[in-house]
Amino acid sequence: MLLLPHTGNVQKISAEIHNKHCFKLLDEVAVDLKLDLKRKLVKLKERLKLFQNAKQTCVQTEQYIKCQAHYTEALIRKEFEKIHQFLWDEEAARVSALREEEKQRVHAAVVKITQMNRDILVLCEKAAGIEEEIDANNISFLQNYKETVKRTAWEMKDPEISSASLIDVAKHLGNLEFGVWEKMLSIIKYTPVILDPNTAHPCLHLTDNLTTMELRNSITELQENTLRFGDYSSVLGSQGFDSGKHCWDIDVGSSSAWAVGVISESAYKNKEILAKQGLWHIGYYKGKYGQGTSDEMLTPINLKEKLQRIRVLLNWDEGCVSFFNPINDTHVHTFVHKFTERIYPYFCNACPEEALRIVPLGLAITEE
User: Fold this and answer.
1) Cα–Cα–Cα angle for 135, 140, 142, nearest 5°?
2) What is the DSSP string of 148-165?
3) CB neighbour class for 180 (10 Å; exposed up to 12, middle 13-18, buried from 19)
C-alpha cells in the first residue's frame, strides 16, 4: 500500500524550498548590487579626493596671491620712492638755484644802494654848500660865484634801474613740469618686453624689474600653475602680439646655452603641439648656433662672429620673424609663416654662469 505524505506537510516543505531559493536569489542580488555600489563609491571617493586636492590647491593659490600682492606692493613702493627722491632732489636743486639767484640779485642791489648812498651824500653836501652861497651877502656871492657854478657840475652817471636786476621768474616757473619730466628721462628706462614671472621655470630667477633671467641650481618654491614651463628653463614675455611690428634686443653675453624667439599661444598651452611646431627661435648650444620651429633639434647656422646681443624683429602682419646682430647690423636668420594667432616673445637660459637681459630703449623727446 502506497503511503502519501500529508497535504499540510507537502505545502510546508514546498514553502521552505521556495523560501531558501528566494533567500539565495536575494543574497546574490545583494552581493551584485553591493559590488556595483562599491565601484560607484570608489569613483565617488576619487572625485571627493579630486575636489579636496583642488580645494587645497585653491587655498595654496589664495596664500600665494597674497604673497604676490605683498611682494609686488613692496616693489611698487620702492620704485615710487626712487621717483619721489628724484622729485625731492629736483625741487631742492631748483629752490637752491632760485635762492642763489636771489642772493646774487640782492647783493647787486645792495652794492647799488651803497653807491647811491655815497652819491646822495655828495649831492646833499653840494646842495647844502650852494644854498649857503645863495644865502650869503651879494659881495661874497659874487666873489665865489665861479667856484659855486663849478660845484653844480655832475660828473657821475644817472642811476639805472633795469629789469635785468629782477629775478628771472619765467626761467624758474616756465614749463616747470615739462622740464622736470624731461630730466626724468635720464633715470627712466623703457623695456619693450617685460618677462612674465607666472610662466618662468622654477629654476629661473627674474630680477625685480622683470627684464633679466638667471638660471639657478636650486628650485624656487612657487605656486604650481598651468602657465609655468616645467620641462625647459624658459619664460615668456608678458604681452602677446596679434598685429603690427615689434622689436626687442637681448643681451646673451658669454652664455653657453640659450634660445630666443617667439612662440604661438596654442603651442605654449599645448606642449604636444610645441614638440612639432609653433616655436620660431635661434639658439646656441655646445658651441654651435642653430634655428628651428619646435623644441626639437636645431638646424645649424653658420656665423662668422659670436653673438653677444640678438635683435628680434616680429612683423605679424607680413608673417615673418627675423633675427639680427645689432652690434654690426648683420642678418642672422628669418622665418616666414602666416600667423593666425597671438604670438609671445620666448626666452630660454640654460647657462647658470650668465644671465640673459632684455635691453632697455633710449628715450628722446621730438618736437612736431
Assistant:
1) 95
2) HHHHT---SPPP---GGG
3) middle
Overall size of the chain counted in residues: 368
Q: For residue 274, what is its C-alpha cell?
A: 610645441
- From first to last of the 368 residues of the chain, give the pLDDT tens digit: 444 455 555 455 555 555 555 555 677 777 888 888 889 989 999 999 999 988 888 888 888 889 889 999 999 999 999 999 999 999 999 999 999 999 999 998 888 888 888 888 888 888 888 788 787 787 777 777 777 777 777 776 777 766 668 888 999 999 999 899 888 888 888 999 999 999 999 899 999 999 999 998 766 666 667 778 877 889 999 999 999 999 999 999 999 999 999 999 988 887 665 556 789 999 998 889 999 887 666 888 988 889 999 999 999 999 999 999 999 999 999 999 999 999 999 999 999 999 999 999 877 666 66
Question: What is the Cα–Cα distance from 347 to 364, expressed in whole angstroms?
Answer: 28
Using the Cα atoms of residue 151, residue 157, residue 160 and residue 165 in order, give the sign of their dihedral. negative
103 CB neighbour count, 10 Å cutoff: 10
Nearest to 268 by CA among 337, 198, 336: 198
For residues 247 and 229, the answer to whether their CB atoms sit within 8 Å is no
Nearest to 264 by CA among 276, 275, 277, 249: 277
DSSP string, 182-240: HHHTTT--B-S--B-GGGS-TTEEE-TTS-EEEE-SSPP-----TTS-SSSSEEEBS--
Q: For the sheet with 279-285, list strands across it.
A: 234-236, 343-349, 257-264, 279-285, 288-292, 299-301
Backbone angles phi, psi at 331, to 5 degrees: -80, 140
Among candidate residues 189, 206, 193, the one with its CA nearest the CA of residue 310: 193
Residue 92, H or E segment: helix 7-135
Query: What pTM, to 2 d.p., does this model score?
Result: 0.73
- The distance of Cα 60 from the centroid of its chain, to the nearest Å, equals 26
Angle between helices 7-135 and 176-184 (to 10 degrees): 120
